[in-house]
Amino acid sequence: MTLWDKGGQLETAVARFTAGEDPKLDIVLLPFDCQGSRAHARGLYRIGLLTAEELAGIETELKAISAEAETGKIVISQEQEDCHTYIEDRLTRVLGEAGKKIHAGRSRNDQVLTALRLYQRDRLGRVREEVIEFQKSLAMLVARWGDLPLPGFTHTRQAMPSSVRRWAGAYIDALSDDIPFIDAVSRMLDQSPLGTGAGYGIPLPLDREFTSAEMGFGRVQENPIYAQLSRGKFDLAIFSALVQLCFSLNRLASDIILFSLSDFGLINIPDRFCTGSSLMPQKKNPDLLELMRASLHVVTSAQSRTQSINANLISGYHRDVQWTKRPLFEAFDVTIDSLSIAALLIDALEFSEERCRKAMTPDLFATERVCELVRQGVSFREAYRRIAAEFSLTSGDKEST
Fold first, then answer.
1. Under 8 Å between Cβ of 131 and 339
2. Of the candidates 59, 78, 101, which is a domain's last residue?
3. What does each of the 401 residues of the chain score in pLDDT, given as a tens digit?
4. Would strands 350-351 and 267-268 be described as parallel, antiparallel, or unpaired?
5. Which helix (H) or strand (E) holds 163?
6. 208 in a domain, yes or no?
7. CATH code of the domain containing 83
8. At residue 162, what are phi and psi to the nearest 5 degrees?
9. Of these residues, 66, 84, 137, 155, which one is catalytic?
């Protein structure tokens, strides 16, 4: 039975279409919906709409639902549509009248907002943890190999001397800039939408400050219309942070793929991180890195989809946004997985000292020789031309200015 059922009969095909993927996707949201429902039940008790006994029963059953959801034992039926209906159906089945009282003072609109906000806060915290671990892996790489020279590239051509320390340090610094971005988005998310109803408030004396604190939010999202508008807005802020992280992973993966080519041989990727070919027995493929590189495009496509769906809607709730759940979940999953596997790979990465030193060919030091002449009093342009002549550089090889 749906939460909005008034006794009519909905066309089967319509029911299936409107429920969409929610019966499967909402398994992810169940523990967070239980968390929000527990705070809401305590709020109802606080204003006298639940007895102490009813509250105790509801809390016990919500705890059981949450535990079962974590183990994958729960199935949400097509008829139930979503996790919100599943919870109320089960509370009613187990507790009777107490279960029927749980929806007083809320709409599915602020219920899903609350569950999503709790989910987003949790996952963003997990992303931050993975970033810190990835930084530690890069720092350990520097500790092992930092002094080893590496050629630096411009235009995908060897350009100037560099080192493992400078190369890995670039990604450490990039992640250091990403962390405040994550923190800023987390602060934006730190406001409770529970109690805003369908977007226009609830005519009951709900203590929103109380339920907000129960869920660990720093403040209440005051304006109920903005609560609905914030769903797409906050999603896009999250995507912006995830895109920054995946952008760094994309570049890192491309570097390692290039450096590990047999023509370069600067890096060795251990066999346990490589796949093979079903046809060519000699192949050692960097599939892991290729998927990591593509994570950026998965997240940017999720960002684009979410932005497009939310654009041009008037204020208030619209069912269109149901389509934004999957891209949000996918973006978090691919970012967390990519960060985790990147740290694992970096921990095992090996550099070839012989190949790295051999790659430091005389042309890499051309700019250094120019600067040496400048220190001796030669003008930069004259020094540049002298060294260029030595290397017989053609105009097509020269660095563009």
1. yes
2. 101
3. 565 465 666 667 887 777 778 888 889 999 999 999 999 999 999 999 999 999 999 999 999 999 999 888 899 988 888 899 999 999 999 999 999 999 999 999 999 999 999 999 999 999 999 999 999 999 999 999 999 999 999 999 999 999 999 999 999 999 999 999 999 999 999 999 999 999 999 999 999 999 999 999 999 999 999 999 999 999 999 999 999 999 999 999 999 999 999 999 999 999 999 888 888 888 889 999 999 999 999 999 999 999 999 999 999 999 899 899 999 999 999 999 999 999 999 999 999 999 999 999 999 999 999 999 999 999 999 999 999 998 865 444 554 44
4. antiparallel
5. strand 157-163
6. no
7. 1.10.275.10
8. -140, -165
9. 155
Residue 315 annotated as catalytic: no
Question: In this structure, what is the dihedral angle of CA atoms 158, 159, 162, 167, given to the nearest 10 degrees?
Answer: -70
Q: Report which of 18, 224, 221, 7 is spatially closest to residue 107, judged by C-alpha positions.
A: 224
HEC assignment per residue over 299-313: HHHHHHHHHHHHCCC
Distance separating alpha carbons of residues 401 and 152, to the nearest angstrom: 18
Residue (of 103, 111, 114) closest to 82 by Cα position: 111
Own/partner contacts of 385-394, CB < 8 Å, gap of 24 or more, are: 391/363, 391/366
CB 307 within 8 A of CB 236: yes
Does 155 qualify as catalytic in the annotation?
A: yes
Same domain, 332 and 350: yes
Instruction: Report the number of distinct structural domains present in the chain.
Output: 3
For the chain, what is the radius of gyration of the CA atoms? 28
Q: Does 169 share its domain with 56?
A: no
Nearest-angstrom CA–CA distance, 134 and 158: 28
Say yes or no: 125 and 254 in one domain.
yes
Identity (one letter) of the amino acid at 22?
A: D
Task: Give me the half-sphere count of Cα atoms (radius 13 Å) on the Cβ side of residue 365.
Answer: 8
Alpha-carbon distance of 329 to 243, in angstroms, equals 14
> Which entry of 176, 277, 315, 379 is annotated as an active-site residue?
277
Give the predicted TM-score (pTM) of the model: 0.91
Q: How far is CA 74 from CA 199, 246, 325, in A?
A: 30, 32, 19
Same domain, 167 and 58: no
Closest to 342 (Cα-Cα) out of 130, 177, 163:
130
- Structural domain containing residue 67: 12-101
